Amino acid sequence: MASLGTVTNSYMDSHGLHETELVQETPIAISINDVNYAVIMVTDVDVEAFVTGFAFSEGLINQASEILDIEFRSIEACDPLSSPHHILANLVLTNRALQRSRSIMRQRRGASGCGLCGIEAVEQAFPKLTPYHPIPTLSDEKWLSVKATFSEHQVIGQASGAIHGAMLLDKSGKIVAFAEDIGRHNALDKLIGKAMIAQHALKDCHILMSSRCSTELIMKATRTQVASLAHLASPSHLAVQQAKQLGLHLIHLPRHAPPRHFN
C-alpha cells in the first residue's frame, strides 16, 4: 500500500510478480512574483517547507515573513517523458525581498549560460560567507545516541529506501524536526523551511544528515549559523576546508567507529 511520498509499483523476478514501494520524484517549478526561477526534482512531501527553505538558502529571503504567499498548482501528467506530473510554486515576496531576489536572479541567469566554466560563474556558485564562532558541538555520547534513533524517523525511507534524511537538534541535542527527500540538498532545505515556518531559531542548533557532506550543504548550513553539521557518510575534502574556514563544526559518524571531528 502506497504511503505519502511513495508509489506502489509492480515488478517481476524469478519467483513471480511482486509489489514494492518506490520513492516519488516530482518536478517543482519555482517562480518569484511570476518570474521563472528554477526547476527542482523533489519528493512531494513538505513542499511548502522545501520552497521556504530553498528561498532562504538561495538568499531570496532572510525570514519566512518575507513570503507573503506561495501559490501552488498541481499539473497532472500528459506524458511521463515530456510532461510528467509537476508542481508550480509561485512565491509572492515583500518589496524588500523582491528587490534582493532580482539581483540574485540576474546572477543566476548569467551563471546558467556557461554552467560553472567561467571565473564569474564559479564566484557566483561560491558566494562569500562570513565566518562565525558557534557554541561547542554536542558530546560524542549525544551524537551516538541521536544516530541510534535516526532510522526511526525515516518514515519514507522505511517504506521505500533510496531517500535522504535530515534531523534538526536544539542546542542541547533534543530532536526538533526531521525531513526526507530524494535529494540531500532538498532534505536540508525542507528542514530549514520547517524550522523557519515554526519560528524556531536555527542559530547554534545542530543538524544530522544521512548523506555525505558536500560543499553546497556547508553553504546552506553556514547561512543558518547552526553550530554543527554531522553526516552518516564521509565529507568531501573541499567541504572540510570550507567548514574549517567558516567555523562550522563538521562531524562524520561512521557505522562502526567513533565520531570524527573535522575542525
UniProtKB/TrEMBL annotation:
SUPFAM superfamilies in alphabetical order = Cytidine deaminase-like (SSF53927)
Q: Which InterPro entries match?
A: Cytidine_deaminase-like (IPR016193), FdhD (IPR003786)
Highest taxon of source: Bacteria
Fetch the Pfam families from UniProt.
FdhD-NarQ
Q: Name one GO biological process term.
A: Mo-molybdopterin cofactor biosynthetic process
**Entries under Gene3D superfamilies matching the protein:** 3.10.20.10, Cytidine Deaminase, domain 2
What protein is this chain from?
Answer: FdhD protein
Record keywords: Cytoplasm included?
A: yes
Q: Does the keyword Transferase apply?
A: no
Q: What keywords were assigned to this record? A: Cytoplasm, Molybdenum cofactor biosynthesis
Name a GO molecular-function annotation. Answer: sulfurtransferase activity
